[in-house]
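Hey, I'm writing a tutorial for new members on how sequence and structure tokens pair up, and I'd like a real worked example in the thread rather than a made-up one. If someone can provide the structure for the chain below, I'll link this post from the tutorial.
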Amino acid sequence: MNWFIEALKKYAVFSGRSRRKEYWMYALFVGIIYAVLIGIALGTQVSALLALAGIFYAAILVPSLAVSVRRLHDTGHSGWWLLFGIVPLAGPITLLVFQCMDGEPGVNKYGPNPKEAAVAYV
């Protein structure tokens, strides 16, 4: 839960780097929240489901983009690679590979490695 809150605290921070753990824990909690919303709305009308999902989606759009851009920065790629996701089949697969890659060791042009910084402070 801390990783989800940490990503939300960096609501519109598109600079810097995010670890794999931060990105995937954020994605996990977003998925869990969507599943809970769908579970709540199953007993209601479809319009209620769409309203709940739409409000939640609007609320997490900017943080989701920000954590995705920071994750791409960690792998040494520009945040503009997110636009490649609109290319059918190849785009989402390429982005998934980038999101699963380990971050570049040391400092890259987007900042210091967050994994090394976390280890140094422990």
